[in-house]
């Protein structure tokens, strides 16, 4: 049976939004969770959460939609962190001493609280400006700058303790 | 003597305040987020202050390490799987069903409650209509009085309030 044109239009719209955002969002979730399957779960539930609120989403600009998607992915990923820890414990995975500097630096980022992790990942890995981060986290730019500084100092301390700095 | 001491204390305090202020701006300075005016102040302070120079080099080294981590991380799987894509599109085109699917427990409890109420009303209606006397319907009442039986026919006890 042929689908009606409204449904087809909505499908194309959704496909367009997914294609435009899935890469960066998956990368972002992957950096928080460190597991591709969990990252896919987080991004899927974020898309469903944001796109199913169609009326609100229809009035959003592209930047606002992106910010809302990042926020939703962050929320979903943070909710999955305990599951990741359980899975890691089950699989008895620990970071080997031979892990390269990059991996150990990433581990230091994972030891930050979710809010600080979000700041560091968005700034250093996703290379966003303070105003873009401010839009995503809904904090003012001064606040973002202060949080970023404190988070980076914490990471630097961790790296010093690990003998990497 | 005392005045000199106070002056030097004042200078130390000023330096401390200045350092604390500058340090908060260091990360923004290094990621080129500061405007030219504030960047010049930080640059000038860094030229003179050893402690802030050390902190700046720590921040730079941390950023370099984290950038290295971002380059070494695998970039595979940067697409959602087809089944996940289909589920998202379905949720977008069928928001109500998607909501019900997401809140299946709530929907089940609500559905069960509605069904119970419907069954209760149906049985109540059935019992009343089957077994209870209808309003205004004439009935036959038999009264036993001193061993004699009187039969009053066609009396409406509901209207007349009994014989």
Describe the protein in words.
The complex is a heterodimer of chains A (165) and B (163). Chain A contains eight helices and no strands. Chain A is mainly α and 165 residues long. In chain A, helix 6 crosses helix 8 (141-161) and helix 7 (130-137) packs across helix 8. The radius of gyration of chain A is 18 Å and the shape is globular. Chain A starts with a helix and ends with a helix. Chain B is mainly alpha-helical and 163 residues long. Chain B has three domains: 2-72, no CATH class; 82-131; 136-163, no CATH class. Chain B contains seven helices and two strands, in the order ααααααββα. Chain B has helices spanning 2-30, 36-48, 50-72, 82-93, 95-102, 104-131, 157-160, and strands spanning 139-145, 148-155. Chain B has a two-stranded antiparallel sheet with strand order 1-2. In chain B, a hairpin with a 2-residue loop joins strand 1 and strand 2 (148-155). In chain B, helix 4 packs across helix 5. The radius of gyration of chain B is 45 Å and the shape is rod-shaped. Chain B starts with a helix and ends with a helix. The model of chain B has no long low-confidence stretch (mean pLDDT 77). The interface between A and B is large, with 49 and 41 residues.
Content-based structural category of chain A? mainly alpha
Structural class computed from helices and strand pairing of chain B = mainly alpha
Order of helices and strands of chain B: HHHHHHEEH
Residue share in β-strands of chain B: 5-15%
Task: Report Rg of chain A.
Answer: 18 Å
What share of residues of chain B is helical?
A: over 70%
How far is the first residue's CA from the last residue's CA of chain B?
123 Å
How far do the termini of chain A sit from each other?
A: 64 Å
Kindly state the percentage of residues in helix of chain A: over 70%
Which spans of chain B have pLDDT < 50 for at least 5 consecutive residues?
A: none
Assembly state of the chains shown: heterodimer
Task: Report the C-alpha radius of gyration of chain B, rounded.
Answer: 45 Å
